[in-house]
Design brief:
With 482 residues, chain A is of the alpha/beta class. Helix content of chain A is 35%, strand content 14%. The longest helix of chain A has 24 residues, at 361-384. The chains are: A alpha/beta (482), B mainly alpha (74).
Chain lengths: 482, 74
C-alpha cells in the first residue's frame, strides 16, 4: 500500500474538533489509518502517564480505519463521526475484551457483545481506540482517594499532581490531554460533570433514558446515564446525535431519538436563564471567584433574560445517597455477600458497600417518594426558566496522591442554584452540559448548564454560544493563552 | 527539702518555660493521637452513616398520596 503523507499540522491535531478532523479526512489531507495511528500511539504512550488507559485496541482500530479509508476513497460519506477515533470508559462492554469496571474483582470479566453505545458509534464508522480508566464500580459505596481505580489515581492533564476527577476519570484525562478527540463516560451523580470540569473539556450528561445503557455496568438503575466528553459543546452534540435512540434491551430507555439541530435555537433572546449571583460571587473558594465573575459576565451577554433563582429546598443529599446505595447494594449483592468486595482498592468503598445493605425498604421508598416531589418542584421551576446556570465545581480538584481532603469548606448560609444542583438534576433525569469557563493557577474551572428533560439542543446551543465568545475550550495543557 | 512557690510565681515560671516546652515537643516525631480504626470500627462508622441518612429521610414528611417514582420517566 502506498504510504500517504500527513499534510495537516501535527501540533494542532491532538486538540482538533470532530468537524476539523472530519474535514481533514474528507479532503484527504490525512488518511483514517494515519489519524488512527496518530491518536492510538499517543493514547498508548501518554495514557499510562496519566493512569488513563485501561486497554488499547489499536490493532483492531487500524483494521477499522482501513475500511473507512476505502469508503472515503469511494466518496461514501456517512456522517460526522466517520473515521474519528474515540475511546470509552471501561464500564462499557466491548466484545471479547476485558471489561473491568475499574475493579480488581472484575479484572478478568469478558462479555461477548458490544454495549449498544459502542455498537452505535462503530456503526457510524467511529474508530474505537481503547478503553479508559475509571473509579472502581463508578464509585459505588463512596471512595476516599483517587487511588480507587484498577489503574491507580488518574492524573490531571493540566497538572499531574492533581486528580482528574471521577468516576469517568480516564475519559476526561484522555480528552483533556489530546489523546482522543472524544470519549464516552457515564454519570449517576456527577461522574461526567466533575472530571470534565477538572480536565478542562466539555461534558454532556444526556437526559435519563436518551442513551441506551445496555452493556454498561449498572450502579443505580434509576439514575445511570451514558454521556460524552469532548473538545466542545458542538462535538458533544455531534456524538449524541449518533448515540441517542430507543433500545428495547435497556428497560430505562425513553425510546426517543435526538437530532442535533442547534440552528433552531440560534436566537436565545426569548429564553430565560435561572441563576444566583451568590453562586458565582460567594460560594466558590476565594481564588476562583474572579474567574467565575467573568464567566457570568459572558453568560449575561448571550441573549437570554437572566432571572435570579433559588433551588427548591429538599434534602437532595440523603435522597440520592439512599437511592444509589440501595440500588448498588442490590446490584453488587453477590460481591458484597461473598466477600469479593474486599478486593476493592478503596477501604471506604468496601465499608460503604457492606453498610449499604442495611438500608430498609422503607428508607428506599421514602427516598423515591421524595424524589417524586423533587421532580414536581423541578417541573414547576422549569416552567419559569429554560436553563439553570451555575459553577460546575467550587474548588480545585483534590490531589492525586493521598486521601481526599474531607474538611468541609465554609460556605454561605444563603443558597442559590448551585447547592444540590448535581443531585437534584440527576434525580430529575435532566440533561446538563459543563464547559470550561476559565483558568486559575493553571487549572480549568467549569460552568454547568442544566435544562429540562430532552432539552439537549437548547443547552448545547447555549454552550456553543458561550464557546463562540470564549477560548477556554481551545486551551491546551502547558500552553495556556492569556 | 521542699520549696514553696506562690501561685503567682508558678504562673510566671510556667509562662517563661512554655516556649521551651513547645520547642522540645516540636522536635519529637509526631505520633498520631488517634489510633487507626479497626476494621470493625470502620464498618460501624459506615453503618452509622447509613443510619444518619435513614434518620434524615424519616424526618421528611411526605403526603400519603405521594407515590414513589417507580416508573421513572424523565
Amino acid at each position: 500500500m502506498r504510504k500517504q503523507k500527513i499534510t495537516v499540522d501535527e501540533s494542532t491535531l491532538p486538540f482538533a474538533t470532530i468537524s476539523e478532523l472530519g474535514n481533514a479526512l474528507r479532503q484527504h489531507q490525512i488518511s483514517c489509518v494515519e489519524l488512527t495511528k496518530f491518536f492510538g500511539e499517543r493514547l498508548e504512550t501518554q495514557g499510562p502517564e496519566y493512569n488513563a488507559l485501561a486497554l488499547s485496541l489499536l490493532k483492531d482500530a487500524k483494521k477499522a480505519a482501513k475500511d473507512v479509508d476505502w469508503e472515503l476513497k469511494h466518496d461514501r460519506i456517512r456522517g460526522p463521526l466517520q473515521g474519528i477515533p474515540f475511546a470509552v470508559k471501561d464500564l462499557l462492554s466491548v466484545a471479547d475484551y476485558p471489561t473491568t469496571w475499574g475493579a480488581k474483582p472484575f479484572a478478568n470479566q469478558v462479555f461477548d457483545f458490544d454495549a449498544t453505545a459502542v455498537r452505535k458509534l462503530k456503526g457510524a464508522k467511529g474508530i474505537l481506540l481503547g478503553k479508559l480508566a475509571m473509579v472502581e464500580l463508578a464509585g459505588g459505596g463512596g471512595y476516599t482517594s483517587a487511588s480507587a481505580s484498577l489503574q491507580g489515581p488518574t492524573r490531571n492533564p493540566w497538572n499531574k499532581q492533581y486528580w482528574a476527577g471521577g468516576s469517568s476519570s480516564g475519559s476526561a484525562a484522555a480528552v483533556g490531554a489530546g489523546l482522543v478527540p472524544y470519549a464516552l463516560g457515564s454519570e449517576t451523580s456527577g461522574s461526567i460533570m466533575t472530571p470534565a470540569c477538572y480536565c478542562g473539556v466539555s461534558g454532556l450528561r444526556p437526559t435519563y433514558g436518551l442513551v441506551s445503557r445496555y452493556g454498561a455496568m449498572a450502579l443505580s438503575w434509576t439514575l445511570d446515564k451514558i454521556g460524552v466528553l469532548a473538545r466542545s459543546a458542538e462535538d458533544c452534540g455531534l456524538v449524541l446525535h449518533e448515540l441517542a435512540g430507543g433500545d428495547d434491551q435497556d428497560p430505562g430507555s425513553a425510546q426517543k431519538s435526538f437530532y442535533y439541530s442547534p440552528q433552531y435555537y440560534g436566537d436565545l433572546n426569548n429564553l430565560k436563564i435561572g441563576y444566583a449571583e451568590i453562586d458565582f460571587a460567594e460560594w466558590p473558594s476565594e481564588p476562583l471567584r474572579p474567574a467565575f465573575a467573568q464567566a457570568l459576565g459572558v453568560v449575561k451577554t448571550l441573549g437570554p433574560q437572566m432571572v435570579q433563582t433559588q433551588l427548591p429546598n429538599f434534602a437532595y443529599g440523603p435522597v440520592i445517597s439512599c437511592i444509589i446505595d440501595s440500588e448498588a447494594a442490590s446490584t453488587f449483592e453477590d460481591l458484597i455477600r461473598t466477600g469479593g468486595v474486599d478486593q476493592l482498592a478503596d477501604q471506604g468503598q468496601i465499608d460503604g458497600l457492606k453498610a449499604s445493605v442495611n438500608y430498609s425498604a422503607v428508607d428506599y421508598l421514602k427516598a423515591m417518594r421524595v424524589r417524586t416531589q423533587i421532580q414536581a418542584a423541578f417541573r414547576e421551576l422549569f416552567a419559569n426558566v429554560d436553563f439553570l446556570v451555575a459553577p460546575t465545581k467550587l474548588d480545585f480538584p483534590d490531589k492525586a496522591d493521598g486521601p481526599f481532603d474531607d474538611t468541609t469548606p465554609k460556605r454561605p448560609d444563603v443558597k442559590g442554584v448551585f447547592a444540590g444542583l448535581v443531585q437534584a438534576s440527576n434525580l430529575c433525569g435532566s440533561p446538563a452540559l459543563t464547559v470550561p469557563c476559565g483558568f486559575v493557577n493553571g487549572l480549568p474551572i467549569g460552568l454547568q448548564i442544566v435544562g429540562r428533560p430532552f432539552s439537549e439542543n437548547r443547552i448545547l446551543a447555549l454552550g456553543v454560544e458561550f464557546q463562540k465568545r470564549t477560548n477556554f475550550h481551545k486551551q491546551q495543557p502547558g500552553k495556556i493563552l492569556t | 527539702m521542699s520549696i514553696r512557690v506562690s501561685r503567682r510565681r508558678w504562673v510566671i515560671l510556667m509562662g517563661a518555660t512554655a516556649p521551651l516546652l513547645a520547642q522540645s515537643t516540636a522536635q519529637i516525631p509526631p505520633v498520631s493521637a488517634v489510633p487507626a480504626p479497626t476494621p470493625e470500627q470502620r464498618l460501624d462508622k459506615a453503618k452509622a452513616d447509613v443510619r444518619e441518612v435513614s434518620d434524615k429521610l424519616a424526618a421528611i414528611t411526605v403526603p400519603m398520596a405521594t407515590e414513589p417514582s417507580f416508573k421513572f420517566v424523565a
